[in-house]
Design a protein that fits this description.
alpha/beta
Length: 508
């Protein structure tokens, strides 16, 4: 017979073993287990019928307890957890998560909210697969057990330890020491900086993006609005008349404006771990606080994400759906090794057709097939033009830098399938080719070439050219950007990889 206070434990794996021993020693025991590696592996179904074992095996697979690592529906999982707590008589919940396990970490805020509404204390303990339990973790477990037992001592301190969800918050690294951005430090050392003359296209890029965000201020109520991940087949939504907002692009903009620490603090204050992607924390902090450097973002009627970039977006957009109360559509893309099979092609095609039905339903009118053809052709041309811009970097000296490319990717992400996007890239391509012909480089002296195979450090890019809009630049309608005259130049056929539009990178 177990003695002590019953506790519901949820997480990934019960490591280190000293955790459970410490809990028992403090006067609590595990009454219900929802560990992914333990309790969620236990599937209770009827014996297999002799006539159809294949159907039984299939049903058994879908009968497993809801698990965030398989993107289980949040409401279903909360129902499962509350059911475990009620049946076991648990008087508290221990959320024991591994650092950087995003599927588990995304569920922490809703677990807290769910059990707070039922009067059950929740302790969130982040750990790693270390061999021993830290002294800090031991103290917090003991305080949690004391709180559940109604200990005399210092229950107020125990309650504070539980509410904190982690052992004290560290100052944000970019706030603590007033660190200078790397580009600024580099420019100071170089006595003016190592960069060549700025691109004329920067001004046009700022106008284009400011115009896009200004339109968004007044979009909801006038046209249907969708918030979309980079890489999503946005052409379907454009053909249905949607104005689209890209939270990744907006988060990068916030980073350049040095707002990421403040917005991250808001998200972390609501229970989101600092180990989550900074794009996510920035965006959720902006949504939860209602603040944005562009003045206002239009409220979406639809959220749309796809799994062709990273798994994070699925959990991120599920949280947006929960907070905003709007439907979420997902386009799931299978892993492909070599050429896609007919089954894989049909799998994605059926989802796109369903997306068209949903988009038409939300927009209040059926999708225009002819308009879809037009948009996809425009998007294909935009991808080709962006590829030609990238191909200009083959020249020596390269007419622009990798940092320039980070910023100038914005239109192909946020405005793919529109003529303003294509007009902008024609101008940029021709300016780059003109600089190649004149031998003008992005650096004053090009000596080496490095491959950057990672995400842009937006926060440290604030010293770069001011090509991102701000609240001031979107407070009045900017002039609609036009391509303008451009020098004649031969276009360079890009490589296969260069022709593909890159997604807005997700920050780590």
């Amino acid at each position: 017979m177990q003695r002590g206070v019953p506790v519901l434990v949820t997480g990934y794996v019960p490591e280190p073993a000293a955790l459970l021993a410490t809990l028992n020693g403090a006067g609590a025991y595990v009454a219900a287990d929802d560990y992914a590696a333990v309790g969620r592996r236990v599937i209770r179904t009827a014996p297999a019928p002799a006539e159809d074992p294949w159907r039984w095996l299939t049903d058994r697979y879908f009968a497993a307890p809801p698990c965030p690592t398989r993107a289980a529906d949040t409401a279903t999982r909360m129902s499962h957890l509350t059911g475990l707590a009620e049946r076991s008589g648990a008087r508290g919940v221990l959320v024991h998560v591994m650092k950087f396990c995003e599927p588990e970490l995304f569920d922490v805020p809703v677990i807290r909210e769910t059990f707070a509404a039922r009067g059950l204390p929740v302790l969130v303990l982040e750990g790693e697969l270390e061999g021993a339990l830290s002294g800090q973790a031991v103290t917090r477990l003991e305080a949690f057990a004391e709180l559940l037992q109604g200990a005399r001592g210092r229950p107020d301190a125990a309650a504070r330890a539980v509410r904190a969800g982690r052992p004290g918050r560290l100052p944000h690294p970019h706030r603590a020491g007033g660190l200078a951005a790397p580009a600024e430090a580099l420019a100071q050392e170089a006595g003016g900086g190592p960069f060549g003359p700025p691109l004329e296209s920067v001004r046009r890029l700022k106008e284009l993006m400011a115009h896009h965000y200004f339109q968004g201020r007044y979009a909801d109520g006038a046209v249907p609005v969708a918030w979309v991940t980079s890489g999503f087949p946005v052409e379907v939504l454009r053909a249905a008349g949607f104005h689209t907002v890209y939270p990744e692009n907006h988060a990068a903009l916030c980073g350049v404006q040095r707002l990421t620490p403040a917005y991250s603090d808001v998200a972390e204050g609501r229970g989101y771990s600092r180990d989550l992607c900074s794009y996510v924390r920035t965006d959720l902090g902006s949504v939860l606080s209602g603040q944005t450097p562009v003045g206002r973002l239009p409220r979406p009627q639809l959220l749309a994400c796809s799994t062709n970039i990273c798994q994070t977006v699925l959990y991120w957009y599920r949280e947006l759906s929960r907070h905003l109360g709007v439907p979420l559509v997902l386009v799931d893309t299978p892993f492909v090794h070599g050429a896609a099979s007919p089954h894989q092609l049909a799998y994605v095609k059926e989802q796109l057709e369903e997306l068209a039905e949903v988009a038409g339903r939300v927009a209040g009118r059926p999708l225009d097939g002819e308009r879809l053809v037009e948009v996809t052709r425009t998007a294909q041309e935009g991808s080709r033009l962006w590829g030609e811009c990238l191909a200009a970097s083959r020249a020596r000296p390269a007419p622009w830098t990798g940092i320039d490319g980070f910023f100038h990717i914005a239109p192909i992400v946020t405005l793919r399938g529109t003529e303003p996007c294509n007009g902008y890239y024609r101008f940029l391509r021709d300016e780059l080719n003109d600089r190649v012909a004149r031998g003008v480089g992005g650096l004053k002296e090009e000596r080496h070439r490095l491959l950057w195979d990672n995400l842009p450090v937006w926060f440290a890019s604030a010293a770069s050219p001011p090509c991102w809009p701000s609240a001031a630049s979107t407070s009045s309608p900017p002039a609609t950007p036009t391509p303008g005259p451009r020098p004649a130049s031969a276009s360079t056929r890009p490589t296969r990889s260069a022709r593909r539009p890159g997604p807005t990178p997700t920050s780590s």
